[in-house]
Design a protein that fits this description.
Blueprint: E1 6-11, H1 31-43, E2 51-54, H2 64-74, E3 81-83, H3 91-98, E4 110-114, E5 117-121, H4 137-148, E6 155-158, H5 169-175, H6 180-187, E7 194-199, E8 207-210, E9 213-217, E10 224-226, E11 235-237, E12 243-249, E13 254-260
Parallel strand pairs: 1-2, 2-3, 5-6, 6-7, 7-9
Antiparallel strand pairs: 1-12, 4-5, 8-9, 10-11, 12-13
């Protein structure tokens, strides 16, 4: 019997605006131009993927016009897209306008199955000083039930905000969720089947491994940020291309390809 496999694309932080020119003061191209280039790059992959995971900040300002623009651009992706809400999003508008849902989830967290894997999508926009986040207790209890269950399915968790400290004050004190340590303790209950925690928000490639759990981020399709030990401020990365990750999994392995693309 062939080993079960899962392959998905991890994208994040498209920050789409209805203004075709928006974003050029932060990057050589607008958010719309970057998002359209992302769609072309993902659709041009020379292999099939099971789905696309967008870990939030779909738009820059969460007005209906922005989600209509995002729908126009991202609906061109050739595979199903699963969305999270970022700190620039409004979960109700994301669901009603972009996804066309009538049954609005608030907070916006859910789970789905793919190829025998369990995928958990979190909402980290609980009460906190933006751009920080928080996972509310109700959601942590829901996640605890999942992580404590006697379930043999490999587990994937997605969240918008970074959870763990890395020794960079800009990431740790300004960007991170306030209760990341609590979240990590809940996730440890499923360590043996947890294949990775995937996040966005930081506009850079970060990978960390703590207590047997892998945390990994994805680049933005727009502008990138830099961070280093003791960095205090938001600093633009003028050298990195926009990009996304291609994640391939088996029940015992996680393999991540970093994929950059040019915007023309």
């Amino acid at each position: 019997m062939p080993e079960q496999r899962l392959t998905f694309v991890h994208i994040s932080d498209t920050h789409i605006s209805p203004d075709m020119e928006y974003g050029k003061h932060h990057a050589p191209y607008s958010t719309q131009t970057g998002a359209r280039a992302l769609v072309r790059a993902v659709n041009a992959l020379p292999f099939n993927v099971d789905f696309i995971l967008h870990t939030g900040d779909v738009v820059y300002d969460p007005v209906p016009e922005a989600y209509l623009t995002a729908k126009d651009i991202l609906s061109e992706l050739a595979r199903p897209v699963y969305y999270l809400a970022g700190n620039h999003d409004k979960a109700d508008a994301l669901q009603s306008v972009l996804l066309g849902r009538a049954d609005i989830l608030e907070p916006f967290y859910y789970t789905f199955d793919a190829n025998g894997f369990q995928i958990v999508c979190m909402d980290s926009n609980g009460p906190a000083e933006v751009p920080r986040g928080n996972v509310i207790s109700q959601q942590l209890e829901w996640l605890d039930t999942i992580c404590s269950a006697k379930d043999e399915r490999p587990l994937v968790v997605a969240i918008h905000h970074n959870a763990l400290p890395v020794g960079s004050p800009w990431l740790d004190d300004y960007m991170r969720i306030t209760n990341g340590a609590t979240l990590h303790q809940v996730l440890l209950k499923a360590k043996d089947r947890l294949r990775g925690v995937f996040f966005g928000h930081v506009h850079q490639n970060i990978q960390m491994y703590q207590d047997g759990i892998l945390y990994t981020s994805a680049l933005s399709s727009w502008n990138q940020f830099m961070s280093w030990p003791e960095s205090m401020d938001t600093v633009a990365d003028e050298f990195s291309l926009p990009g996304f990750n291609v994640v391939s999994m088996s029940p015992t392995q996680t393999f991540i390809r970093r994929w950059g693309f040019k915007v023309e």
